[in-house]
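Schema walk-through. Below, the input block comes first and the output block second. Nothing else is stored per chain. Lengths vary across the set, and this one has 166 residues.
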Amino acid sequence: MVNQIGLLQKIKEILEKLISFYQQLIGKEKREIHLVDLAKVMARFEGYYISNSRARRNKNPLNLKWSKFATKYDSDGFCIFDLPYDGWKACLYDLEMKCRGYTRTGLKPTSTIKDLIYVWTEDNQEPYLRFVCQKLKIPQTFQLQEFSLKEIYLTLSKRLTELEQG
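--- output ---
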């Protein structure tokens, strides 16, 4: 009888591990991906973490060409911000508006990360898309409405050092 109880306990443990594995496999335990994390990955692709890059010099992590927060523009039409905080705020605002469907780009909450990248840039679209999807571990069909917008601006001040360092 004691051996049977031990055996049943082992079977129960194995079944629990299998259930956990399959739940992760089919996505029932969904991990939250914050819009700030998308911005950070995109900033890396845009060269923000490279000394003296355009993005770094202009304090414009995503190389925005227009923003209501920009103070001026460089000779190629890219926004220049006074402070890194202002650049990050503008970038997060731009991404948030695109995710909510509040821009003239045609993007909406059900648009995919592929749609976003193809609107974002005319050059290097496929490498950019692969880079973002690989770093965030998401498929190209990941919808913009799936990004978490929780505390997007409340955490900006707290995460600025992290964002600046990559």
